[in-house]
Automatic annotation (TrEMBL):
Protein name from the UniProt record: GGDEF domain-containing protein
Complete-protein stretch covered: 308 to 555 of 576
Residue ranges occupied by any EAL domain in the UniProt entry: 1-248
Domain of life: Bacteria
Length: 248
């Protein structure tokens, strides 16, 4: 059966889960929230990685119900967790007025604090239609939601767009992190990207942190947050709550 049809059916059957990867505040090592990442427990019971289906789903209208599922899970979890949860939006989500209205209702017409929700959008998704992106970001910002640029530094774009968008954070792509230990130039680039973020009053997060030396370099460079396998992989919400409790 075609992948898209299987995903649609999987959604109806409740085969999708949202797992959460913690983000660590580098200044004091405290847990500062998490990123929700979708997982699919398919017919056979095995976990399918989003890398295998999201690129296809993102090109179809099915991205709307998938993101709606993610949004609802993330908001429920954020209220239970009492900490920030981020989710990923793709290009089509930004142009989806119905989804944006649902987002507004979800944070404004419930007792959820909108600041608990953060939307991550890749630099390339923003660049796809900068004008539409700007309108969508302005709306989300108006709801009190935070918005970060994901995979920052890899979208073949200038920095100029940053000036025009109401964003609150930058997530520096893991390509910069993975080179830092061996390559002085990667370290210097990282230092510059952190400075770009701080110059614009943005919270800077490094992705894909896998080693202690990377953690220490980022801390010394003044990076605000880090996320990666060094701390933890994405895990079910209940596991993350336990993990946080054990760590504190
Ligand atoms: O969790 P993992 O590293 O396997 O995710 C692989 C890719 O799928 C990443 O690029 C991630 O951003 C993307 N992804 C994971 N969950 C979601 C989601 O809920 N929505 C969108 N649009 N992308 C997601
Ligand atoms: O930016 P994006 O939303 O694509 O990032 C989320 C993805 O990155 C998820 O698929 C997650 O599993 C993956 N990821 C998270 N931490 C690490 C890490 O330390 N190393 C690598 N290689 N991938 C990571
Ligand atoms: Mn992301
Ligand atoms: Na990313």
């Amino acid at each position: 059966v075609k992948l898209i049809a299987r995903v649609r059916r999987g959604l109806e059957l409740g085969e999708f889960e949202l797992h959460y990867q913690p983000k660590v505040r580098l200044r004091d090592g405290r847990i500062n929230g998490c990123e929700g990442l979708i997982r699919w427990r398919d017919e056979s019971g095995s976990l399918v990685s989003p890398g295998l289906f999201m690129p296809k789903v993102e090109n179809t209208t099915l991205i709307a119900p998938v993101t709606r599922f993610v949004l609802n899970e993330a908001c429920d979890f954020a209220m239970r967790y009492g900490n920030r949860v981020s989710i990923n939006f793709s290009v089509r989500n930004l142009m989806d007025d119905v989804l944006l209205e649902e987002l507004r209702q979800r944070v404004q017409e419930t007792d959820m604090d909108p600041a608990l929700l953060e939307i991550e959008i890749t630099e390339s998704a923003l660049m796809h239609d900068l004008f539409a992106a700007k309108l969508a970001l302005e709306r989300m910002c108006g709801f009190g939601i935070h918005v970060s640029v994901d995979d920052f530094g890899t979208g073949f774009s200038s920095f100029e767009y940053l000036r025009h968008l109401p964003i609150t954070g930058l997530k520096i792509d893991r390509a910069f992190v993975s080179g830092m230990e061996q390559d002085v130039r990667a370290r210097k680039l990282m230092a510059c990207l952190i400075e770009v973020g701080h110059a614009l009053n943005l919270e800077v997060t490094a992705e894909g942190v896998e080693t202690e030396p990377q953690h220490h370099i980022l801390r010394e460079l003044g990076c605000d947050q880090a996320q990666g396998f060094l701390y933890a992989k994405a895990m079910p919400g209940d596991d993350l709550l336990l993990w946080c409790r054990e760590r504190e």
